Amino acid sequence: MQGISTCDESDAAPIPVMPPRPQHPLPTLAFLKAIASNSLSACDEELFDKLIVKRRYLLQRVFFVSDPEAIKRVFLDNVENYPRYRYIRRLFQAGLGTGSLGTEGETWWRHRRIAAPAIDHRAIMPDIAAMIGVSEELAGQLETIGGDRVVDLEMVIGNLLIAVWNEVVTGGDPVAVPMLNRLAKYPRKPRLADFTALGPWLDPLRPLQARRGKIAAFDDLLYRLIDARRDEKYPGRRDLIWRLLRQQDRKTGENLTRTEVRDEAASVIAGGVSPTIRALTWIWYLLAEHPEVEARLHAEVDAVLQGQPPVAGQLAQLTYTRRVIDETMRLYPPIPGILREAVAADELCGHRVPPRSIIAILPWVVHRHRRLWRDPDRFDPDRFSPENTAARPRFAYVPFAAGPRICVGASFAMTQMLIVVAILARRFRFRLASGHPVRPVGHISLHPQGGLQVIVERRAAVGSARAGAAPSNLSLSQA
């Protein structure tokens, strides 16, 4: 079942950074503390050796599932039996209402049928030129950074991605940028109690504003944006909010209500911005550590773009760049853990699963599993060549989950990443700053603790910047 890798074992390239793995399963209290502080540090060696591991923490059964056939059953074949874990889902509900990140059942399905076509590849095609334009403009600001000045690349990419999202969500209205920044940080970091039945009892003791993660402060703005687009004579672009208002449920013919549009727009943003920022950040860490991969990526970008900004039709030609993105999300999956809960008894690859068991599908583990990948801790983009991909079980790679509950913005995320990587790689290379160790930390998403500190180097053979760009009123240093 092992995947194919072209990586030479004698290669001197460093093993990408990861936290130490416990040799043995952690006791319950230590495990829960590790989950709350850095979920990656709770993953012991046994999880990377066995495809299904059954554990019990206090009274709770947990199945750690890495077998692709079992993952397929949870995500696809018997999906209705495995809703998202209720205590994690609750983190999203206070601020997102009926949005799909915080719901299950028919409410979720209804929102999904409307949101998916509003942000799929066809829907965002008219936005790609604007996404490229604002990315080029903001990337150009890095040209002014010289010498050995250290820059937090995670922050830079975060502000660039906020600008890209703003083009898609609001047509580029600058008043929405603070709202997008806040939603990108939602929900809060989970606490130890959030993984237990204590969470619902403790939450009412916290102020409502704290529970909603401060996003309610932007409700007036979001409703103003919605109301403007309800007018049939609205002169602006047909952005995401406009599409959510007018998209009909293909099953019932109904539209979302005003409040539901608010909830779903907030949900799409909260679920999509942060994971894409994290994935894009890790790409530059890996390229800095693997100059031979960086050279191949630069060669492809130069050959395809010919020194000019990309256009939509060129993105599909960046095949090696796509491999780099996929391999980055294998090693550093944007969402390191996905939890489901069994409604009724089931069987996963011969293992009996009682009702209310937690099913932990951890991309951090699945993507590094020794029975699924050869040299799993090494960085090798050619794992994602067509022949290697075809030889690998489909559900051995799940950076966006899979099945009906696959991330609604998965296609949009890949488009964003191809655009940003192409634009930045055309102009720059990034070197890791000394004295700033990189440490991966897993919470809701997987990020480098303290950001990614780099030194920006301009590439020698670079074409001219985009001409005729409209000013965005944004800055890469904007918080």
| Percentage of residues in helical conformation | 40-55%
Spatially, the strands of the biggest sheet line up as: 1-2-7-4
Task: Report the portion of residues in β strands.
Answer: 5-15%
Overall shape? globular
Overall pLDDT: 90
Instruction: Give start-end ranges of low-pLDDT stretches.
Output: 2-10, 463-471
Could you walk me through the main structural features you see in this protein, from its secondary elements to its overall organization?
The protein is an alpha+beta fold. 42% of the residues lie in helices and 10% in strands. It is built from 18 helices and 11 strands. The protein has helices at 28-37, 68-77, 86-96, 105-118, 121-124, 128-140, 153-170, 177-184, 198-202, 208-211, 219-230, 240-246, 258-289, 291-305, 319-331, 363-366, 386-390, 410-427, and strands spanning 52-57, 60-65, 150-152, 338-341, 346-348, 351-353, 358-361, 428-432, 440-442, 446-448, 453-458. It has a 4-stranded mixed β-sheet. Helix 11 packs across helix 13 and helix 13 (258-289) packs across helix 15 (319-331). The longest helix has 32 residues, at 258-289. The termini are far apart.
Features of the shown structure:
alpha+beta, disordered N terminus, 479 residues, 11 strands
Topology:
Layout: H1 28-37, E1 52-57, E2 60-65, H2 68-77, H3 86-96, H4 105-118, H5 121-124, H6 128-140, E3 150-152, H7 153-170, H8 177-184, H9 198-202, H10 208-211, H11 219-230, H12 240-246, H13 258-289, H14 291-305, H15 319-331, E4 338-341, E5 346-348, E6 351-353, E7 358-361, H16 363-366, H17 386-390, H18 410-427, E8 428-432, E9 440-442, E10 446-448, E11 453-458
Parallel strand pairs: 2-7
Antiparallel strand pairs: 1-2, 3-11, 4-7, 5-6, 8-11, 9-10
Helix pairs in contact: 6-7, 6-18, 7-8, 7-13, 11-13, 12-13, 13-15, 13-18, 14-15
